[in-house]
Write a structure and sequence with these properties.
Elements: H1 2-33, H2 43-52, H3 64-90, H4 99-106, H5 109-121, H6 124-154, H7 161-171, H8 178-194, H9 206-209, H10 219-244, H11 253-274, H12 281-304
Helix pairs in contact: 1-3, 1-10, 1-11, 2-10, 3-4, 3-5, 3-10, 5-6, 6-8, 6-12, 8-10, 8-12, 10-11
Length: 307
């Protein structure tokens, strides 16, 4: 029963609420940078509710079941990941062997669901966007996994999130080491790509592909995709906090520090989004397979040498 509580209350409701607020902050800051007023705080929620009230149209000739199931796959994976992260952050002992690997696997599913939905719609623009999303996954997953190896190595080669958090509680945040700083740089850039935000939004590219893989989605399907993306705006920084910053400590002044850490990560995402132009998919692949992979390898070598 306790796990159902975590799944519904923390994995879904709390994550969705925080993600929607973070989305508003991102949009508000972006508007201010562009000398606009920006949306009210409830606008992200209003957008989702409005979409839920609209008809879900299915393109002619598309694979109906696949088209409708794709957004559910991405949404469900984010809810499960968030639940696992909350469980480990609240109680280190609730960790199980290999939960880090499970989280890494599940975090690929939102992007895979976008690819599946794009190809299932049989729209040329959606297929181009899905193809770009596929190449982007192949680009950033390598340096992302290499960077995640840094906390694994420093915690005594543990693949349990609880043990990684416990190690940092006793020895300090991993980001305080040289290898931790390099791993953070790589993870931060990979988070930007996973969120499909500028400069890595070439899959959706509203001005070029009119939304890419999501061009045929409407109603509840589009609402689910947008809510999934908003929730990822919490889940991915939270995952980074657990791996490198000691997670979120629910006691005294540490609560304030935890909030600051999360806001800082959201601010970094927003700054990167507003200070860079969109890159081409080939440039993104070279960036992640080149500099980011090299930095990640250096971080792993430093971690193996205790730095």
């Amino acid at each position: 029963m306790i796990y159902i509580y975590y799944l519904l209350v923390l994995g879904f409701l709390a994550t969705a609420a925080i993600g929607l607020v973070a989305s508003w902050i991102d949009r508000k800051v972006t508007a201010r940078v562009q000398y606009r007023v920006g949306p009210p705080i409830l606008q992200p929620l209003i957008d989702i509710v409005k979409l839920l009230g609209k008809e879900t149209l299915i393109p002619a000739g598309s694979s109906k079941i696949t088209f409708l199931a794709a957004p559910v796959l991405g949404f469900a994976s984010v809810v499960v990941v968030s639940t696992l992260l909350w469980l480990n952050n609240i109680n280190f002992n609730q960790s199980f062997l290999g939960d880090l690997i499970v989280v890494l696997y599940l975090l690929t599913l939102p992007s895979i669901s976008i690819i599946i939905g794009g190809f299932a719609s049989r729209n040329p623009l959606a297929s181009i966007g899905a193809s770009r999303e596929m190449k982007l996954i192949l680009a950033y997953e390598l340096p992302f996994i290499l960077a995640v190896l840094v906390p694994v190595i420093q915690s005594g080669f543990s693949i349990k999130l609880g043990e990684i958090l416990n190690f940092q509680a006793q020895n300090g945040a991993i980001i305080g080491s040289l290898s931790g700083v390099l791993a953070f740089i790589v993870i931060a850039m990979c988070i930007q790509a996973k969120l499909a935000l500028v400069p890595f939004d070439m899959a959706e590219a509203e001005t070029e592909l009119i939304g890419g893989p999501l061009v045929e989605y409407s109603g509840s399907g589009l609402a689910m995709y947008k809510l999934t993306k908003n929730m990822l705006l919490f889940v991915l920084p939270f995952f980074c906090m657990i791996l490198l910053m000691g997670g979120f400590v629910f006691s005294g002044i540490h609560i304030f520090y935890g909030i600051l850490k999360y806001i800082g990560l959201v601010a970094l995402i927003t700054v990167i989004r507003n200070t860079n132009p969109r890159v081409r998919i080939d440039q993104a692949v070279r960036f992640f397979w080149g500099p980011m992979t090299i930095i990640a390898i250096v971080a792993v070598i430093l971690a193996l040498n205790g730095l």
